[in-house]
From TrEMBL:
Catalyzes the dephosphorylation of histidinol-phosphate to histidinol, the direct precursor of histidine. It is an enzyme of class 3 (hydrolase). It comes from the Bacteria. Its cofactor is Mg(2+). Its EC number is 3.1.3.25. It catalyses: L-histidinol phosphate + H2O = L-histidinol + phosphate; a myo-inositol phosphate + H2O = myo-inositol + phosphate. The keyword Magnesium applies. Pfam families: Inositol_P. Belongs to the inositol monophosphatase superfamily. GO terms for molecular function: histidinol-phosphatase activity; inositol monophosphate 1-phosphatase activity; metal ion binding. This is Inositol-1-monophosphatase. Mg(2+) binds at E73, D89, I91, D92, D216. Gene3D superfamilies: 3.40.190.80, Fructose-1,6-Bisphosphatase, subunit A, domain 1.
Length: 267
């Protein structure tokens, strides 16, 4: 089956909205959301909504494209034969979701032969939906978005995040101690996909985080890049688990140099 990026995006967006309705309705139905299990640490939680949403997304995508591959945060990977692989975070910002904070997202990306070609990030709480196809610009609810015009790190509003392991968090805090006086201010919103979309929309001038998984990064990274952001790792590496950075071009170089000097891509 051929892989037209616009068609992949349309399927991803329809599916993300349906999954978003499911998780939002489940959250609004209860005062307190139960933890269904934990993963890497006792604070790395999963809810029944995470697994239900990923199951819905998998069902919808495979009904439309049964021979594609799939990589999901909760239920692992399925190899495909078409060259199209779906990279899915059913709820990015699960801790926010657990606590009822309206900063979580359904993130679905379509990779074609290993390159992200279409991505959608949908915030069910706000209803906002960011979309992009490779080379087609970035969009929020159908309107084009672009990164900010910030040109000095000292004036930059910078997002970041922390891992679930206490030792890594201590290291990330040590890096943050040096970043805070070098920038306007810091925001820690708790959902990487939405942080990346915030850079795309100029709501943040930059974002960096160590330890992101492919499903945190795939869709939001494309959206940020299509909005004009520099999306990379450090020391010439691509954005990935060691370090992911998205920044308006006016501050990307300064922030990259600072994070390299601080060893932000190392424990
Ligand atoms: C989250 C990321 C966030 C990071 C959290 C967590 P999850 O993903 O979106 O940026 O700081 O530690 O990894 O676990 O909610 O899918």
């Amino acid at each position: 089956m051929t892989a037209d990026a616009a068609e992949l995006l349309a399927l991803a967006e329809k599916t993300a909205r349906e999954a978003g309705d499911l998780v939002r309705d489940r959250r609004e139905a209860v005062e307190r959301m139960a933890v269904a299990g934990t993963k890497s640490t006792p604070t790395d939680v999963v809810t029944e909504s995470d697994t239900a949403a990923e199951a819905l997304i998998r069902t919808r995508l495979f009904a439309a494209r049964p021979d594609d591959g799939f990589l999901g945060e909760e239920d692992g990977s399925v190899a495909g034969t078409t060259g199209v692989d779906w990279v899915v975070d059913p709820i990015d910002g699960t801790v926010n979701y657990l606590y009822g904070l309206p900063q979580y997202a359904v993130s679905i990306a379509a990779q074609v032969d290993g390159v992200v070609r279409a991505g959608v990030v949908h915030n069910p709480a706000s209803g906002e939906t960011w979309t992009a196809v490779l080379g087609g610009g970035a969009w929020l609810d159908g309107r084009p978005v672009r990164v900010s015009a910030c040109s000095s790190l000292s004036l930059a509003l910078v997002g970041t995040g922390f891992g679930y392991d206490a030792g890594r968090r201590a290291r990330q805090a040590a890096v943050l101690l040096e970043v805070v006086p070098a920038v306007r201010d810091i925001r820690r919103a708790g959902a990487a996909a939405l942080d990346l979309c915030a850079v795309a929309s100029g709501r943040l001038d930059a974002y960096y985080e160590r330890g992101l998984n492919p499903w945190d990064l795939a869709a939001g990274g494309l959206i940020a890049a299509e909005a004009g952001a520099v999306v990379s790792g450090l020391r010439g590496a691509p954005a990935g688990n060691d370090l992911a950075l998205a920044a308006t071009p006016g501050v990307a170089g300064e922030l990259t140099a600072l994070l390299e000097r601080l060893g932000a891509d190392r424990d």
